[in-house]
Amino acid sequence: MKIIIPIKRVLDPYTQARVNKQTQLVDLTNAKMAMNPFCEIAVEEALKIKESGAASETIAVSIGTEKTIDTLRTALAMGVDRAIFVNTESDLDLQPLHLGKILANIVKREDAQLIIMGKQAVDNDNNQTGQILSGLLDYSLGTFISKFQLSDDGKSAEVCREIDSGIETRQLNLPAIVTVDLRLNEPRYASLPNIMKARSKPLETIEISSLGIDISPRVKVISVEESGTKDRASKQVQSAEELFSELNQLGVL
Amino acid sequence: MSVLILIELNGSEVSSNSRAAITAATQLSDTIDALVLTDDSTNAASVASLDSINTVKVIADSQLEHVSVGVASKLVAEAMAGYKYLLSGSSTYSKNILPRVGALLDIQPISDVCEIKSNNTFVRPLYAGNIMATVESSDDTILMTVRATAFEHSGDGGSAAIEELSLPIPEQKSNFISIQESQSERPELTTADRIVSGGRGLGSKENFALIEKLADKLDAAVGASRAAVDAGFISNDYQVGQTGKVVAPKLYLAVGISGAIQHLAGMKDSQVIVVINNDPDAPMARMADLVWETDLFGALKELNDHSL
């Protein structure tokens, strides 16, 4: 069984996003970039399944400009077997529907039975690509998972989903797509020897134009602005009595 | 130009995020219908009494209790025929289904709409709400989820017609096993007027009980930072922030939370923010209306002992 892990390169989540007033886009020039944190969790889960002997191969896929290769190398250094790089040449405004179509093409070509991916990327916060991919392929889907257990015969998986009302447990028939939530696992760090080894692991490049997918934007970003967090005029209090009295005056108790 | 709203039910009750979607829909059209997928058609009654709804379309089948997203999205896609918009309140329910409907109808959905500027232009958050983007859709049909904290929650008082749709239920590829519902006597996090939230500063699961005690005293919901969740003090459904729940209560009381960007994004619209922390330079403190710079355990004891 092959596992595909789609991953995304994003602005480092511990960095403040800033708007470039001229381009009206988020300024990523010279910004510190990283693998989307949810994608790291997806990579870790795929590696665990491979290590348990239930998977034959793990394949990381990423879509973007050449810099995206850095992120694929990180996945290889964590232990993924090989990588597929879909080259967009320039910075395209690819949306989840486009990404779903590109990934569906690769999933079919590789005949992967399991796709593990982040529930959302922390740049655009869409929370859509896994769901869209499952719809395009008509595969079963488990979103927001915090637990994954493959059945002994390898034909299904039991997953726990973190939903608003609690935790839902479902059985998914394979082929399946799962999108991962925070508490699924603790991603490993790549060791130095593995970073060296990753350089010689196979990395295939696919030109996006060769896929014949319409990538014209459906939803256009017209403008962006920093909403940020506005500082407030903080008033100091020194005791519970003072705090409760202030809150009573503000009418919020 | 009519709108269909995918309603989320909690038992027979309409969820508050669905009520926010109705308010958003009134800004787009005068013709608003509701769609309900349920195992029991009597649940449609609570939807029919909502304000502003013309017709409630009900797909009722015993198989629809805990139905798979694959089946749900096919039914919604079919029921969508003839509508210009499909709206749903942002929740794990709608975020699961709507994008898959988009895949079936070749539409790029729009997540977490906070403002409606025109019939195809919307404002939505990027980067955990640090950036607000104005986006324009060129799709003929528009699918979107709307933030429940950004729109008023529509009330009751209507008397909509109820129409049962009899659609064949497709075969499921995923089976429901169980649900472990969060047991809480406290108000729900996303709709609470008051929230007491704890962070890594609490130090342990045992200490986190002090937060719960204070929440009970104030009739507040309990929240947590991602750091507190990661440390195992409390489960993920209490997480406030970009990767958890977005809240905007009247009172947000943060204890031992330093204020990571992703947490601030989830609570910055709170009316009154109180911070109890021993670090006056923490980002959280700059957001506060009231700051109590002190040892948080001493403060929690004093707050729990003091009468309101």
How would you portray this structure in words?
Chain A has helices spanning 37-51, 68-78, 96-110, 129-137, 192-198, 240-250, and strands at 2-6, 9-11, 19-20, 25-26, 33-35, 57-64, 82-87, 114-118, 140-150, 156-163, 166-173, 176-180, 203-207, 219-226, 235-236. In chain A, 27% of the residues lie in helices and 32% in strands. In chain A, the strands form 3 sheets. Chain A has a 9-stranded mixed β-sheet with strand order 11-10-9-12-8-1-6-7-13, sandwiched between helices. A two-stranded antiparallel sheet of chain A has the order 2-5. Chain A has a two-stranded antiparallel sheet with strand order 3-4. The termini of chain A are far apart. In chain A, helix 2 (68-78) packs across helix 5 and helix 3 (96-110) packs across helix 4. The relative contact order of chain A is 0.18. Chain A is an alpha/beta fold. The radius of gyration of chain A is 21 Å and the shape is globular. The relative contact order of chain B is 0.12. In chain B, helix 3 crosses helix 4 and helix 5 packs parallel to helix 9. A 7-stranded parallel β-sheet of chain B has the order 7-11-6-1-4-5-12, with helices on both faces. Chain B has a 5-stranded parallel β-sheet with strand order 15-14-16-17-18. Chain B is elongated. Chain B has 9 helices and 18 strands. The model of chain B has no long low-confidence stretch (mean pLDDT 93). By secondary structure, chain B is an alpha/beta fold. At the A-B interface, helix 3, helix 4, strand 9, strand 10 and strand 11 of A face helix 3, helix 4, strand 7, strand 9 and strand 10 of B. Strand 14 (219-226) of chain A pairs antiparallel with strand 10 of chain B.
- What is the rounded Rg of chain A? 21 Å
Total count of strands of chain B: 18
Strand runs of chain A, count: 15
* Gap from first CA to last CA of chain A: 57 Å
